[in-house]
Amino acid sequence: MKNILLYGHAGSGNHGCEALVRTTYEIFRKAGYTKDLTVSTLDEGRDRKYGVQAEKLLQNAFSYQVSLLYRVLCKIHPNCLGIQNRKARRDYKPFFDYVRANKEDTLYVSIGGDNYCTKRPTWLYETNKVVDASGYLRILWGCSVEPATISEAMVKDLNGYDIIVARETITYEALKEKCSTDIRLYSDPAFVLGKEEISLPENFEPGNMIGINISPVIVRSETVPGMTLRNYKALIQHILDTTDRKIALIPHVTIPEDNDLDVLKVLYDAFADTGRIVMIGDHNCQQLKYAISQCRMFIGARTHSTIAAYSTCVPTVVVGYSVKAKGIAKDIFGTYENYVKPVQQLQSEEELIQAYEWLAAHEEEMRAHLQQMMPAYIEKAWAAGDVIKKYL
């Protein structure tokens, strides 16, 4: 039986990444893998804070300050691929040293669900070169890839994987067309995530809450400056004016430079005096899933916050910005039209109100559909364990 090392994990301050580590562990266990997993992480402190356990947590010498500096450099000098390659060789040195020193039979599983999704992951290309040079097999696990971003360099890197597991059909079909390696299709691993009950705020009324998630990522992706927050504020005001429902603001990423709580606080402060809005604080992914499961409906930006909603049969509209939102919605509902509102298309501040009204009109139909099909869809996530059986 091979050892398995997970890499590409950004750390559990992104609770979607946390969910992927937790559920990958469970899926591999159910498939018959009995050894401890090793996880290469970019943020060991937060992995420990949120209770993610592994045999080893390899602390890469990566800092978000360096990453932020690199993004600034890219704006000044767009052709800075060489800078990023040098940065990868420096900041990922502990990982590279581990790969080169590890003489045991190891399978490397690249776990970042959207590492290939919206940007050029040259740091991952550099990482994979070291894995390949050491003679190890690698798998890309539960990924989404924006078809328009698939370049020759990306195809070359993707073809180095022994198996690629896509988590939705838009990615699957694009990779089948472009790549020569073995492409499989399974549901996102996080669909199997369990819930952990927590105490909710005193003013939280289970079954009467509209759960809302917003992220700095979608704010940065908007095409009309300020339009995203104006839409969310107009939506909350509309719900308060026209229903007796309450609002639950729920974060799903809390890393310092990309913290959902920063933008959620803007919304909370605008409506705190109404007494009908509550803020869910930072928790691990299982606890956040419990809070989301107690909502009547959900409007979310972070992919894994909406996966928590879908998998607990909470009717949901996604404020999306990439292929992953569209692909998952299409696979669940047959189409992403109305189920995903691309943030880039927000041109007037009533558009989220319209999305919510469509959701409210189709609430029971959507809930019934999720209740009927979600068991089989979740089973497809468990079935992804078949991928590693030949390595056991």
Task: Count up the domains.
Answer: 2
Extract low-pLDDT stretches: 61-84
In the sheet with the most strands, the strands line up as 3-2-1-4-5-6-7
Q: In percent, how helical is the residue content? A: 40-55%
Distance between the termini: 4 Å
CATH topology of the largest domain, which one?
Rossmann fold
Helix/strand structural class: alpha/beta
Order of helices and strands: EHEHEHHHEHEHEHEEHHEEEHEHEHEHHH
Descriptive keywords:
392 residues, alpha/beta, Rossmann fold, 2 domains, 7-stranded parallel beta sheet, 5-stranded parallel beta sheet, 14 strands
What can you see in these coordinates?
- The chain is 46% helix and 15% strand.
- With 392 residues, the protein is of the alpha/beta class.
- The chain folds into two domains: 3-185, 3-Layer(aba) Sandwich (Rossmann fold); 209-374, 3-Layer(aba) Sandwich (Rossmann fold), CATH 3.40.50.
- A seven-stranded parallel β-sheet has the order 3-2-1-4-5-6-7, with helices on both faces. A five-stranded parallel β-sheet has the order 12-9-8-13-14, sandwiched between helices.
- Helix 6 links the parallel strand 4 (106-110) and strand 5.
- Helix 4 (81-91) crosses helix 6 and helix 10 packs across helix 11.
- The termini are close together.
- The model is unreliable at 61-84 (pLDDT under 50).
